[in-house]
Records
---
Amino acid sequence: MDDQQRGLTDERRAFVEAIRDFARRECGTREQRDRLTGGGLESHSSEIFGKLAQLGWLGVTIPEAYGGAGGSIVDGCLLLDELEFGAVPVFGLGVTLITSSAVEKFGNEEQKKRVLSSVCDGSVKSIAMSEPNSGSDVGSLSTSAIRTDSGWRLNGQKTWITAAHHADELLVVCRTDRDAPKHHGLSMFLVPAGAEGVDIRPIPTMGGEEVNDVFLQDVEVGVDSLVGQQDAGWRQLMAGLNFERLIGAAWMLGLARRAFHIMLSYVSERKQFGRPVGTFQSLKHRVADLGVEIECTRLLVYDVAQQAEADPFRQMPREASMAKLKASEVARRTALEGMQMMGGAGYATEYEMEHLVRRALPMTIYAGTSEIQREIIGSTYGL
């Protein structure tokens, strides 16, 4: 039993082994991964996502009543952690789980049946919050939803929206009361990605096509598209932060573990001056430090996940932000240290480390920057 499986139930250990076996079979070689991602330009494979649906894993955190497995946030973290460690290209999974969690918490019964069952069947969902002038300061968003005789009319622009170009549906956060105070008057709407007036444009980034601009021009949606209570969107967003940050932390932990694994394999085999380069003190101690950091991160992420599992309604702004902050910073550090210790091989596109560096660098920006996480953590200490 490896460290990752320590403390897990027999059922969860079997789940981890099944994910690893899947990753080895489907994405175990560079050739397989290149075929699935267009040579590394795409981070999400619909083919692989469909296979995960067939295995029933996409519904791991969805209640059995809606076709899911009825698992907890711990199970969701294990899935994302192991898929990322196994280099399985399903970038849209994290945001899909975050979106489905919001619908499960606040949607009506009809919305739950439709949305959650479609996730289990393999559809990608995306949540649209950020705007050109409203990133970390989400409460200042200006995309509007105006009541009409038949429903709502949406206008505005969202940006940096993860996996929107793969999604069949977007959960769009809009302002429904322009006269309300800053963090009031916001609401959530389910919007078909193919609805008239929705224009999704991928943003080229160093990681390929992962995020998007979403333009909404006179988009008409029905009254049944409102998720939860009108003007209560901010409270609903805050209630989902534990889940969102833990999902991000687990994904980043998996990336850090993969970078460490690849680096360790290289420095254990590469020889200079008649011995493996990893046996030289300058590298051995760096490897040791990274190993400590990753183990601390693993313990933190799964401890917070277990607390959330025990009390799903408990707000944990400090703990969840700590997990996201630590995992994202460790993922970036591990990938950069790995590149340095692998020398030219770490920089060459022939090897995987340069790809992991490109994946890891934005991790401290995604899902709330490290600076914002520190602000939140500091505030919980009364500062």
---
Amino acid sequence: MEREAATAEMPGPAPTGRALRRRRRRRRRRALQALVSVVVLVALGGLLTDSLRWRDERPRLAGGSERDAPVPPPRVPPRPARRALSAEDPLRLWIGGDSIAGALGPALGQRTGATGVVQPRYLSRVSSGLTSPDFWNWPRHAAAELEEHDPEAVVFVIGTNDAITFDVGRADAYRLAVAQMAEILTRGGRDVYWVGVPVLRDDRARRGALLVNAITTEVLARFPQVTFVDAFALFDDPPGRYTASLTDPGGRRVVVRAGDGIHLSAEGAELLAGAVFRALDARWRISAQARPDAPKRVLVSKGTTTVPGSGGPTRGSSGRSGTGTGPTTRPSSGAPSPTTAPAPTVPTTTRPPATAPPTTAPPPTTAPPTGPPTTAPAASPTPGG
């Protein structure tokens, strides 16, 4: 025992230079491995808890949290106008979409038509969306409209009804539907201005609007001909929150939303029309070429339906009948949207799953329910968008 203890206390041989270098390399390797492990664990923890907030401020799905700022639109580089405009050869503008388009169509149509160098036309369909092709098949109807009228620029407004009943499990199907619609609208190199879903009053619908807009901007980033107009950012105040009124440039508080928390008031339609007009003007130099002495009528396509009092035509308006370039009778600011919709009777069944819309199936004679925030009797449905 004493011999073993003495042997253990004897110092070993001093390490050589090579041994010291190997020892230092082992220490550095162990330190690097430990650092990598810590970084990996932190990254995994952030992904699982959704605690990382990226600078693009996209909606966060975990826990249903919302971002604090609007989804940024795709950055589209400025492009020169393709041709000069004149009163004799005006820009052919087509506006299409859901009932929000029924308010935007007349407002934007009057604004552009008054310049004399734009010929506007619109088609709006109450309660339509990309997830309900059995009610109104937008790929089929839009393709027919574009073939017949050959517009050079398109403004498309969609997604409000899709947002109201959005199911995150159908996100991939919605991506396909948006991509299919964008491909149809941009055929032939056509300019497209896609208007997103405005902020909605109902909490569930507002979260759906964020998700629909996020998916839409993600898909549209692959289409350089498309400019996304962020209606959510235009109408929310503070960022991410619903408001019925906004402060105008003169400092007055103006009601911009209808009483249902979904649609736009007359002032709201004008606000959105102004944002879209600025995007069109930047591309086509409309203001610089304007001929106000030769105003154009706002044409309304067959099949158009609108929310009564929204400023558009009544159910069944079609052909060359238009609202003209003069003022349109509109509801008073903030007046609730009427509950008598021009769409057919709403069935009691739920809306179909969101799938990529077929392009051949004809629409049935019934409209899908619009879901929250309001539930109306079947005899007098409240349209969503």
---
Amino acid sequence: MKVGIVGNNVSAITLAKRLRDRDPSAEIVVFSKESFPYYQRPKLIDLLAGECEEKDIYFYPPAWYEKNRIDVRLSDPVLSVDPGSMTLKTASGEIKADRIVIASGASSFVPPIPGSGLGGVFCHRTLDDCRAIKSAAAASTNTVIIGGGVLGLETAGAIRKLNPNATVTVLEVMPWLLPRQLDPEGAAVLVSLLAARGIPVRTGVAIKGLLGGKKVGEIDLGGERLPADLVVVSAGVRPELGFLASSGLAIKKGVVVDDFLETSSRGIFCLGDAAEHRGTVYGIIKPAIDMADVAASNILAAGSKEYRGSLVSRNTKILDSYLLSVGDFSPADEKDCRVVRVVEKSEYRKFTVRGNSLVGLLSIGRRLPEMKVQQMIGSKTDISSILDKMRSLDYNFS
């Protein structure tokens, strides 16, 4: 069996490994737009901050690919997919496969801000992006991050560590930071933590445009101009699906897949950031790994394993504080559950209880054991005996 994998990221390479582990004879070909072997995208923050070297971000050494007979074709992006003939058209030619897997990931979204094409304006998604930002940040005086999501805040913290002399400001269009993860009380705690570390945050701003000649110099906020010699746009990502325009595959927010992770065309699978399963595009690592395991089973034995979704968990270090969010911590309807909030100067905890089970938790401040919290939520552990303890920020779930 020949399997053509579009993408060279955590979902793609995890799938390749699972296939090789289960089928020593499969022919596995991976197509990559980038010129680098698979690297750990979260480690780009450490690389930007100067806390690791490029060699530290690669997950597998070159010998691993050779040993496992995984043919990775770098700088050879897939340009189109023909489901009828099961053909991939790439920059270097065409290849037929018995199974095709769309694991193309996502790309940075750049809002239509006038001047966003000026020099000194970057996104932070790839290793090339990281290299360019790191070079510019070392000489920056006024850095501005547009977007107060997790990646934007991580980037702000990394640049602050790399160049402590630079002014680093975060601009967020929404009324408070991380509105999908935080309520105003939690966001206020996070803003105060960032400000104490020299990163001011401005929310509810309207960005009229970026100003400069060939290179950005200011940001027009409407009645006010903010100096900026480096701008990093961190306004979210979108699934990378342009090459599928003529494929005929069912696409909504992502490529629509069933519970076997098969697309609307038989023999073509999709996973990771590009996949939409039951109306959800996850865009985070754990579901990508879960999907890779399920897809590998179904590629080798059709209909052998179902994907039922993944427990969403995000664990991020922003400067010296940890932000952990697991499960349904912001239910749309709080009528059938209890939501408990604990706020102190530099810490915040919010958890949701339905019946006697924990269904979601959000924490800012000290580090909590992510796997233990996931286990409690996933197994619907009866927490009635520890509920009072959980109201204390000293309780660490151990």
---
Amino acid sequence: MVRLLGVDLSNNKKIVYALTAIYGIGLTTAKKIIRDSNIDSDCRPGNLTIPEVALLRENIERVNLKLEGDLTRFNTLNINRLININCYRGSRHRLHLPVRGQRTRTNARSSKGSKTTTLNKKK
């Protein structure tokens, strides 16, 4: 099992799709990394040799992207900044509601939580 940036890559998937398990690497970036490493895109991570894994690790570092912990920290700091300056988007984040103008009257059940019914009170 190949481990890159603290993530175990699945041995069942092709290397291109297995690299997308790393937070911050999408399909286009994975294809670019594989092409730069001169590794067959049909190869599985379990079939890679140690020099190929080292070359893959070097090319991931050379891409110069924020990945895994750095990217999550960057995103949470941006959200916290919006919350602290008390802008509209920050208040929507604070209330766990949709941020980008989606309808909330009938949808948004995943962000609003499960529907609760209120019972009729007797007067």
